[in-house]
Structures are given as structure tokens and as C-alpha cells.
Amino acid sequence: MSFLDPSALTQVSGMLLRARLIVEGALTGAHRARLRGSSVEFAEHKEYAPGDEIRHIDWKAYAKVDRYYVKQFEQESQLTAYLVLDTSASMDYAGEGLSKLRYAAYLSAALAYLLVQQRDRVGLLPFGQLDSGGYVPPRAQPAHLRTLLGSLEELCERGGAGDASAAAALDRVAEIAGRRRALIAVCSDLFAAEGDGLAVLRRLQARGHDVVVFHVLDPDELSFPFRGLTRFESLEDERVLLAEPESLRRAYLRRLEAFLARVERGCADSGVGYHRVPTSQPVERTLLEFLETRARLRGGGRTWSS
């Protein structure tokens, strides 16, 4: 299966086209890679092809045969989704590819595109942007999608800033969403979210919301590949450390492993969906893995439900 290198997406003009390419790449990549299943059982369906309306995909058929088919649209109750995007300074880090912020924004754009194609309502809430026009209320119209994607592009151009409060952003989502079940998708490196942020995620899940975390990390952060005397600069508080990486690697990787284990265990214990996402992984693959996981968990129903 062939996916775009994440860095190639920066060469694509416009967030809308990027989102469409990611979504169509994920869906067509899946049906090309899996050939199991009986075509007779689904003779009344048309196999998905680029350009078909995503909202017509039969997710029950997909769960049975691992291939995408489109059908006549069946009326579903409308879902409300909130995309919670980490825009803190640490998200600006980029090793050899996309910054974590751009990767998270492209993934958020693809999720928004998919949701609106299914006639669901989707909104955007960036960390730390609550009082500066960053919040985009959830709606389902195509014109609204363009507004939301424009906000994502603007956030990428502005770059990350400060030490954003995940807990404050998630509390705001809880306040806005109320008791009506919603999908809440968080894209973050979680450096500002452990502790209070995870506690809010648990509360949201306990209230009946459908919460999923995309833990976006650069490969450098996962492997600490640095060699020779290196200058390390904190993006959050401007601290600087000049050191030989070899003297730090073992302790760093041990602390990282403990951090990842705490986050993953905390999500699992509270029923929050968790996906660890290196920025070297094609965005289409991340979306595909998310959709496949949802289809399995829901036994073939819609990949998300209201």
C-alpha cells in the first residue's frame, strides 16, 4: 500500500485539498490492500472509488469484508464532534518532517472533512485560543468546513505558543457539549495534558462522550537519536542545555517510556481511545487505523455514533 510522505502534503495547495487527499488515500488504500470477502453478498453495492461521497459508505459491509462499498444514504441521527488541537509551543518541534502542529492540523482537517461529508456537525477548539477567536462552533455545512479548515491553516502559520492548558480547553468542551453525547478528538503531544488533562478526559468519557486521543510525537522524541555536543532548547520556557546526548539518552528514554505507559494506561482504564502517532507515519495511515479500530469496536456499525 502506498501513502504520501507527510512532508509532501505541504506542497499541496490548500487545506481542503489536503484533507480530501488524506481521506481518499485512506479509504482507497484499504480496499486495494484487502481482497477478502464475497462480492456476491454485496452485489447491490458499488465498491468505493475516489470521488464517491464518503457519507454513502456502508460501514457494516466494511466490517464484514474489509473493503469499502457505497450505498444509498440512510438517515442517521446527527453527530456533534469537537476537534481539540494542541497549539502549545512544544507542538512546533519538527525533526526531519512536518512539525507536530502541522501533522495534527492535517489530521484534524481530514477528520473534519470526513464528518461534514457524513452530514455531521464538527467544531474546532485549539488549546490556549479560547479568547482569541480560535474556537469554531460545530456546524455541518460545506461553507462551515471551509471556515474551519481556514482556521487550521491560520493556526499552522501562526505556530505554537506558550504552555497551553489542556485541562482548560477540555473543561470548555465539557461546558459547551453539555450532556448530549459528542465525539471529542484530541490531537496533542500531551506534554501539557498529563495529570489534570487526563482527569478531564476521564470525566468527559464518564459523562457518555466518545473521547479519542491522537498522541502526536516526533520520531526524535521517541528515539533520541542525537550525537555529539548538542544544544537543547525548550520550546515552552526557553531554557537551554548544552550536553553530550550519550550522557542523557538512557535516563531520557526511561522517563519517556514511563510517561507513555502512564498516558496509555490512563486512557485504557477510563475507556478513552488512544492512538500513538509518530509524525513520520503517513496521515492517511493514521486515519485508516482509526477508522478500522472504530469499525471493529462497533461491530460493523458507523465508525462513530451519536
TrEMBL record:
Signal peptide: none annotated. Gene3D superfamilies: von Willebrand factor, type A domain. It holds the Pfam family DUF58. SUPFAM superfamilies: vWA-like. InterPro entries: DUF58, vWFA_dom_sf. Residues 45-255 form the DUF58 domain. This is DUF58 domain-containing protein.
